[in-house]
Amino acid sequence: MGRKERGMRLSVGGRLALVSLGVVVLVAGVLAALLSVQLSDSGQREAEKVTRSVAETFAHEAEIATLVEERDSDRLQPMVEQILPDADLSFVTIMTPDGIRLTHRNRSEIGEQYQGSRGEALAGETFTEVYVGTLGPSVRTIAPIREGGDEDGPIVGLVSVGVTLGAVQQDLAARVPLIVAASAAIVGFGVLGAMLVRRSARRVTGSYTPRELSRLVESYETVLHSLREGLVVTDRDGRIVLYNDEAADLLGLPPAITGQVSLDPRAADMDAALADAIASGRRMVEETVVNGERVLLVNQEEARDLTGRRAPERGHVMTLRDRSELQALLGELEGVRTLSDTLRSQTHEHGNRLHALLALLELGRVDEARRLIVASTEDRQELADRLVSDDDDAVIVALLLGKLDEAAERGVRLDLDVAEPAPRVPLAAPEAVTVVGNLVDNALDAAAAGGEPRWVRVTLAEKEGDAVFEVADSGEGFDPSLPDPFAYGASTKPAHAPGGRGVGLALVRDIVAAHGGTLQLAAEPTTVRVFLPVVVSA
Question: What is the tens place of the pLDDT at every residue in 476-534?
């Protein structure tokens, strides 16, 4: 940046201060000019008033009328010279009707022709004019002098009383310091006001120049409406004052508009717990919240000022990410993993049984081979029949059939109690696999890690309009150090455990919550119950 650019780089606050100061100086100048003009007019009007009063006084004096008739300048001149200082006048000229001066400020002018208008005075009228005479421009009043001072007598002379404009201006000059002082006081207050304006503006706009601030606002508008994350800003009272298009879509708010709003989150059509979190401004870090059919990942922090410091008085900022699609993908991935584990377990188990059957047949022990086949099928024949009958619960039944082999392989007894007909749950096939597979897998892990007898009991039934899926096991239960076993990342498995840690149960919670269901935990034995609304057949 060049020297010229640095010199011209004024912040918004600085420019506002300069504009404010310029306006104050302009107002002070205009006010001083108006006061000067007003005082000038006032001085001239005062001069007209004084000259008229003195002229009329002279015109009505009988003694002066007599002296004028006698043309006695010797007696009139001293009378006039005595009055001039007391009345603060520039001149008093008494003359004959034909304009010959009988008195004058300069005695040498006595007997000379009067310079000025006399027509209206000779007509009997007293009038005032501004005229340039021997003493320069002056405000003068000319009045007729009548015989004996009588208003109806014949005119025997004229009297002209005046004040030079120089004298008027000199009188006004004494008032100039007052005008200057008033103007200086106004400018002084203007400087203080400009400093306050600059300070207040800097608190809001910092050191940005108008161009920088304009670009910043444009960028802010672009980013705000282009973000694929929801953004919500609240004030210190917990009211929503700003949000973007994505937040409007995720929270069901009215379309985002330019500028700020004032919206009570509790009055909006959103989840009550989420609305309370927004209104309270509590800190949230990667919290999963269900709002309608959406699973949201929410963060909320106190607002920060331009320096990056926390500014709770400015409210709070919340960001929202839609995890619905990610949750669905994770659910499908978890379901595929569960099914693959089940198929691998079945393959291994069936391989063992086929080897055993082949050996028995080769040894000619047909009866024992027949008993092995019957024992392998009788405990799951009912479920197999339901699987091939194409019931609505075929996916769940198929998964449970696979888990029988896995449980046997791990030395755990798996008891299945599935009502017939099974209640229809509002879960898609991948979601059903995720919920059932994760709960059963965790139960098998817990039971296998515990002592004898090792068992898992799975129940699927309908109760009071809800489909109840219950999984109990003989394990030691959930780790009491985990505040929420269903939270993302909550796990007691080793960090290197295959398939990740703390994801399965979190997916179960999100899927159940998204479908309006609830979860219950019980101990002795460890039991997880899932309640889902039953889908009513059309």
Answer: 887 776 667 776 655 555 444 444 445 667 778 888 888 888 888 888 888 999 999 88
Measured on CA atoms in the order 31, 37, 41, 42, is the torsion positive or negative? positive
Rounded-to-integer distance, Cα 495 and Cα 501, Å: 7
Tell me the C-alpha to C-alpha distance, in Å, between residue 19 and each of 46, 191, 198, 480. Answer: 40, 11, 10, 67
Give first-to-last CA distance, the chain, whole Å. Answer: 74
Calculate the CA dihedral of residues 359, 343, 436, 295 and round it to 10 degrees.
Answer: 170
As a whole number of angstroms, the distance between CA 507 and CA 496 comes to: 20
Token representation of residue 467: 């489909």
pLDDT in tens, 211-220: 777 777 777 7
Task: Determine the 3-state secondary structure of 212 from DSSP.
Answer: helix
* DSSP H or E stretch at residue 105: none
Question: Residue 190 and residue 28: Cα distance in Å, rounded?
Answer: 9
**Phi, psi (deg, nearest 5) at residue 499:** 85, 0
Beta strands 316-322; 230-234: pairing state: antiparallel
Q: Which of 258, 251, 262, 255 is nearest to 220 (CA)?
A: 258
**CB-CB neighbours of 407 under 10 Å:** 24
Question: C-alpha distances in angstroms, 57 versus 51, 65, 126, 132, 149?
Answer: 10, 11, 12, 24, 10
Q: The whole model's pTM is what?
A: 0.42
